[in-house]
Specification:
The structure holds 2 protein chains of 2 kinds.
Chain A (H helix, E strand, L loop, with lengths): L1 E9 L5 E9 L4 E5 L6 H8 L7 E6 L2 E2 L4 H5 L2 E4 L11 H11 L6 H9 L13 H13 L5 E5 L7 H17 L2 E6 L2 H7 L2 E6 L2 E7 H7 L1 E8 L3 H8 L3 E6 L2 E7 L2 H9 L3 E7 L3 H17 L1
Parallel strand pairs in A: 3-8, 3-9, 6-7, 7-8
Antiparallel strand pairs in A: 1-2, 1-4, 4-5, 9-10, 11-13, 11-14, 12-13
Chain B lengths: L2 H38 L1 H9 L2 H7 L8 H29 L1 H6 L2 H5 L5 H34 L7 H28 L3 H22 L19 H5 L5 H25 L5
Helix pairs in contact in B: 1-4, 1-7, 4-7, 4-8, 4-9, 7-8, 7-11, 8-9, 8-11
Chain lengths: ~300, ~270
């Protein structure tokens, strides 16, 4: 559905994207990850027809993103990374403008989305908080039930509850068959809703992996505090890799087999147990360290 | 053209439009109200008679203040009106195009099926309507003002309407380059700066060209030469040439703006 073929776009400051080839299949959700300045927004702007690639071709549903932008927009919903609205309007007036420009008649979906995200659309935009503006932009991007969704860091500015609501909405869109390309900083949200994930660094696609593969390769570090110091050796004997031990407190690295780990812990006297999400870099470092080891062996 | 965008843009600019229209009309009434006092003053007419012709050309009095049209052409349409309308068209043209690009909300418009050319043409229509409304309201206010405030003053309504119409067409052309610069300049400040500087240069060139015969050729460098309030008042202006030329210039500038906007790359 979305195709980028050897797309290059360079800016005067040296940033941009280089020789990028990427495909998002019909009905697929692709997470697009990378640090700031990696070229994520540039890719999305090329797809929206705001920027013209220096080389290569970008298409959506077979239509050229630069030449046929209006035809692409008819079936696409876009959520920009930096949200800005016309001054002097309230939320509803803005949605009416977008609906009018899309020749959208019904308001049922719009009203349902406003209700779901719990905000007063009649609030003047200049009085809206960042999160409220984000919600308004989400409604504008989703209200025409687009076939393709291009989302630039869609959960930024939303509180955890609304992030949850948004991910549920995305899941529904996925079920409906929408093709979604979503940039993000956060691996957990990408892990939850995406089928595949692409990693961009310095304008180049470093990796394109199935989320399932990443998940199974993912290690997680648990910090366990035991009441009985002897339990530390019990964990080690069970074959788990203790990365750090500080008296009764240990860091244990677990990969995939959480059941075995829980069974082992069930035999111990645990005073405290915590874990943390690995950030994206750690996930990929571990993933690639793993695959390289496997190749070597 | 997008009707929804047109409606919203008009709504967003209605307040500015109304302020300028009411302000211009009020200013014009002030001048009309002062006319009977000035016309009675023979001292002023005598003073004007004694001044050199070149100087009178600069200040816009070639025939004294014996007629309302000449008085308004010199006092109001020679400078005050040009300044007010220049500010209106330059601020409006940049707020219609450069502002949403600079602020980023142009992405809201371009992520709909309305093409870039349609967006540019819709905003052009808003600008044209604004200029037409300000000019029309000023014309009507002028005619009514003379009728109410100086009913005895000699006043040629036809010449007055012609003067306003040519002014309107000239300001459409000013709006045309303001709009075109909005579509090509990297940001709003640059667009406003260059448009304002160009307008000041045009005005200064016309003023300097009236100083002496040696520099009179400079008037051909200024767009403002097309609007000669005194010439129109005396029926010397070649309206059949000037009006179509101004319409063509404005159309070309707006067409250029739409094409430049279509090709523009934007980090939205």
């Amino acid at each position: 559905m979305i195709h980028l073929h050897q797309v290059t776009k360079r800016f005067a400051n040296g940033r941009g994207i280089a020789d990028l080839t990427l495909e998002v299949r019909q009905g697929e959700t692709l997470g697009y990850l990378g640090p700031n300045g990696a070229g994520k927004s540039t890719t999305l702007r090329i797809l929206m027809g705001f920027l013209k690639p220096d080389a290569g071709q970008a298409t959506i549903a077979g239509l050229d993103c630069w030449r046929d932008a209006p035809r692409i927009q008819a079936r696409t919903g876009y959520l920009p990374g930096e949200i800005s609205f016309p001054e002097g309007l309230n939320g509803l007036e803005f949605l009416d403008l977008v609906a009018g420009m899309r020749h959208l008649r019904g308001t049922a979906r719009r009203d349902e989305l406003i209700h779901r995200f719990e905000f007063n659309a009649r609030t003047p935009i200049r009085k809206m908080s960042k999160g409220m503006k984000q919600k308004l932009a989400i409604v504008a991007a989703f209200m025409h039930e687009p076939e393709v969704l291009i989302l630039d860091e869609p959960t930024s500015g939303l509180d955890p509850l609304m992030q949850q609501r948004f991910l549920e909405l995305l899941e529904e869109e996925r079920q409906r068959g929408a093709t979604i390309l979503m940039s993000s900083h956060q691996f957990p949200e990408v892990e939850r809703v995406c089928d595949r994930v692409g990693i961009l660094k310095d304008g180049r696609l470093m990796a394109l992996e199935d989320v399932q593969d990443l998940r199974s390769a993912q290690r997680r570090v648990f910090t366990v505090v035991f009441k009985d110091p002897h339990d530390v050796s019990r964990v080690e004997r069970a074959g788990f890799h203790v990365t750090k031990a500080r008296g009764n407190e240990v860091d244990v690295e677990v990969r995939g087999d959480y059941n075995a780990f829980l069974r082992t812990l069930a035999q111990c006297d645990v005073a405290n147990l915590s874990t943390r999400e690995l950030d994206l870099e750690e996930v990929f470092m571990h993933y690639y360290a793993e695959t390289r080891t496997e190749v070597r062996s | 053209m997008s009707a929804a965008l047109f409606r919203t843009s008009i709504k967003m600019h209605a307040q500015t439009l109304l302020s300028f229209a009411v302000g211009t009309a009020a200013y014009l009434w002030l001048f009309i109200w002062a006319y009977p006092f000035l016309a009675k003053s023979s001292a002023l007419n005598n003073l004007l008679k004694d001044l050199p012709q070149g100087f009178l050309q600069i200040i816009g009095y070639q025939a004294g203040v014996s007629q309302m049209n000449e008085y308004l052409a010199g006092e109001f349409y020679g400078l005050v009106y040009i300044v007010i309308l220049s500010i209106y068209v330059i601020t409006t043209s940049t707020r219609l195009m450069a502002h949403p690009i600079d602020r980023g909300w142009m992405s809201c418009l371009l992520s709909t099926p309305v093409s870039r050319v349609q967006v540019a043409l819709t905003q052009t229509a808003v600008l044209i309507l604004g200029v037409v409304l300000v000019v029309a309201l000023t014309t009507v206010a002028g005619i009514l003002g003379v009728h109410w405030l100086a009913p005895d003053a000699p006043f040629d309504v036809r010449r007055f309407v012609e003067m306003n119409a040519v002014a309107g067409l000239m300001f459409l052309t000013v709006g045309g380059y303001g709009f075109a610069l909005s579509c090509v300049c990297p940001d709003e400040r640059t667009a406003v700066g260059i448009s304002a500087a160009l307008t000041v240069v045009f005005f200064a060139t016309k003023t300097v060209s009236a100083l002496d015969d040696h520099v009179s050729w400079m008037k051909y460098l200024s767009l403002f030469t097309a609007f000669d309030p005194q010439g129109i008042t005396h029926g010397h202006a070649h309206l059949s040439v000037i009006c179509p030329a101004l319409i063509a210039a404005a159309a070309l500038l707006f067409a250029f703006a739409a094409l430049a906007f279509r090709r523009r790359q934007m980090a939205l």
